[in-house]
Structure formats: structure tokens, C-alpha cells
Amino acid sequence: MRGLRDYAVITASYWAFTLTDGALRMLVLLYLHQLGRSPLEIASLFLFYEFFGVVTNLVGGWIGARFGLKSTLTVGLCLQIAALGLLAWRAQELTVLAVMVAQALSGVAKDLTKMSSKSYVKLLVPRGDAHGLMRWVAVLTGSKNTLKGVGFFLGGFLLAALGFEGACVAMAAGLAIALVASAAVLPRAAGKSGAALRLGEVFSHDARVNWLSAARLFLFGSRDVWFVLALPVFLSQVLGWEHAEVGAALAVWVFGYGVVQAAAPRWLGARNGKANGAALGAWTIALVPILAAIWFGLAHELSPLAVLAIGLTAFGLVFATNSALHSYLIVAYAEEDNVALKVGFYYMANAMGRFVGTLLSGALYQLAGEGRDGLLACVAGSAVFVVISAALCVPLRSAERRHEQAAA
Questions:
Q1: Degrees (nearest 5) of the Cα angle 219, 222, 228?
Q2: What pTM does this model have?
């Protein structure tokens, strides 16, 4: 019963954080675009968010294993409140420095919170229950992405309803409630390693984790290279959508993505051992024809609205399944006494993929001439990253087989 209560608290804290994280990203993106910043300038500002996510995941896993997951969750929530407070304080004259610092704080906060929440699931599921582990990881991850979609809509809505400063203050107040609840309820020692850990142990020596992390880097880079900046700017700049409409459209996509992710265990086959590197490679390469169809439709000047609506639906279904399988595999690979280390290392690769994808999203979109040509360049870049991610699943499956033979 206590384990279920702890899971509920840490999930609720993760949900609260996710709402503000999605809202803040959309809020900053739309507000800076409204102020006349170029796509590459906006992408550059988001790079601080992604870069500090890389550093945080690398060191945060060690901190979580050394001091417990409650400490990393608490610090994550506090930093997000500080980021929102800084943006509210500087709202009237929002300088580049203020946005960069706030994005750095938010990047650290996001990955401390995510690493803490996903690591905690491993501690609650009985050893050997692969289907149960996949189900609970999928519920946590899928619900997070669903709420991130709601956060995208919330960001656009709050910007219109409360203004930039009011939106930041309202979100900080909501997070403060989650902070108090988690600090009061969660046990201090959860997730602490039973052995003394050196900082150098943050780097994984498990070949499965290393190959999976590399595949994750390119998979999430493939999404962000066209979704994180090029797509919302295209919708606003070319199709003439209002900020609230852009936020609502991305919210619907991410919401559906989260629903699919939560339901993915029904067809991924963790119970019968089919959830492995080979399955991951097959689901990954399935993204290529979808991206090719989107590129073809846009290049031949078909209705961009119809092309993107159909393409994003298909892409979301397959990508969400990939993400659910990824999230299950990394938690399944991790032992209970160092789960935070392996999850932290893995999400370091995830943050690096987002960093590269964000940079390329702004650069390709602007250098290709913006508009339709810019989005075409980003979709092509996404397809290249997908092929690399799928190729990395081949040595991943080999590493899984070696591990299975050694354990036999």
C-alpha cells in the first residue's frame, strides 16, 4: 500500500511538472516569435535547456543513487519554480540572458524530475515481472506525454489569458503545491545504492545500455529536428495560425502520442519476450516511409494541412510505440541498486538527441529558406536520423543475446 501511495505521489509530481514544462516551452517559443526573434535565435535559446539536460542526466543519476530519488525530485521541482519566477520577474524586459538562465534551470529541473520518477518505478515492480514493469513505465511515460500536450495548449491559452508574467506566476504556484506534497510523503532513502559510488561510475559499462542510448539519441533527434521548432513556426508563419491554435494543434498531437504510449504494452509483447532490440529496430525503421510520404506531399504542393494532419497521426502512432519500448528496455536493463545510474546515463543520450535536433531544427529551417522549403529540409534530416537509429538496434540485439547467454 505504501509503495502504491509513493507511486501516486511521485507520478502526480511528475504530472504537475510536465504541465508547466510543456506550457513554458510553448509560452517562450510563441512569445519570442511574437517579439520578432528568428527561428535560429529561438532554437539557440532552447539549446541551454537541452545542454543542461545532458549534464544533469549524467550527474543526476549518480546523485540519485548516492543520496536517494527524493532529493533529486525535490531539487528538480525547486529549480522549475525558480525558472518561472525569473521569467515572471523579467517579463517586462525579457533579455536574452534571462531566457538563457531560465532555460538552463528548467533543463536541469526537467531531467532531475524525469530521472527520479522513472527510476522509482523499478523499485515498486516485483523482480521478474516484465509485463508489469512495461505496463507501469508505459502508464507513467504515456500520461506524462499526454499532459505535456495539455501543457502546450495551456501555454498558448495562458499567454492569451494572463499574459507572460501572469502565466509564469500561476504555474509556479501550482508546482509549489506538488513540492510540498512530495517532500512530506516520499521516503528519503528510496533509490539509494547500497554501495559507495564514484562519480566515474555514471558512464555505463553495459553494452545494452550504451547501444540503446545511442539509438535513443538519434530517435529523439529525428523527432525534434522538425517538430520542436520548424513545425510550430511553419504553422504560424505559413498557414497564418494564431498562437492559441498552434498550441492546441501540438497539444492534440502530444496528447494522442501519450495515449498510444500508455497503451503500447498490449502489442509490444513484454510477457513473451518479444520486447527487445530486434522489435525496436523494426518499429524504428517503420518511421521512414511515413517521413517520406510527408516530404513527398509537401514537395509536390499538396494541401499542407492535409499532409501534416495525416502524416503527424501516422508518425505519432509509430513514434509513441518506439518511445514506450525504449522506456521499458532501459528500466528492464537496470538493476535495482543502480537503476538511477543507468536511467540517468540513458536520458543523457536522450537530452543530447534533443539538443542536436533542436539546433538542426532552427538551422535547417532558416538556411533552407524557411516556409515549405525549410520544413522539407527538416523532414529529410529527420529521416536520416531514423535510419541511423534503426541501424544501431542491430548491435543492441547482439548485446542482448550475449547478456542472455552469460546469465544462462
A1: 120
A2: 0.73
The torsion of the CA quartet 362, 58, 96, 365, rounded to 10 degrees, works out to 0
The CATH number of 2-189+201-407, from 3.40.50.300, 1.20.1250.20, 1.20.1050.10, 3.30.530.20, is 1.20.1250.20
Mean pLDDT over residues 313-337, rounded? Answer: 81
% the chain with pLDDT above 90: 14
- Determine contact, residues 111/73, Cβ cutoff 8 Å: no
The burial of 269, by beta-carbon neighbours within 10 Å (0-12 exposed, 13-18 middle, 19 or more buried), is given as middle
How many C-beta neighbours within 10 Å does residue 406 have?
A: 7
How many residues are given for the chain? 408
Q: What does the pLDDT look like over 12-52, one tens digit per residue?
A: 777 777 777 777 777 777 777 677 766 667 766 677 677 77
Share of the chain above pLDDT 70, in %: 73
- For 187, phi and psi rounded to 5 degrees? -70, 145
125: helix, coil or strand?
A: coil
Residues 238, 358: Cα–Cα separation, whole Å: 20
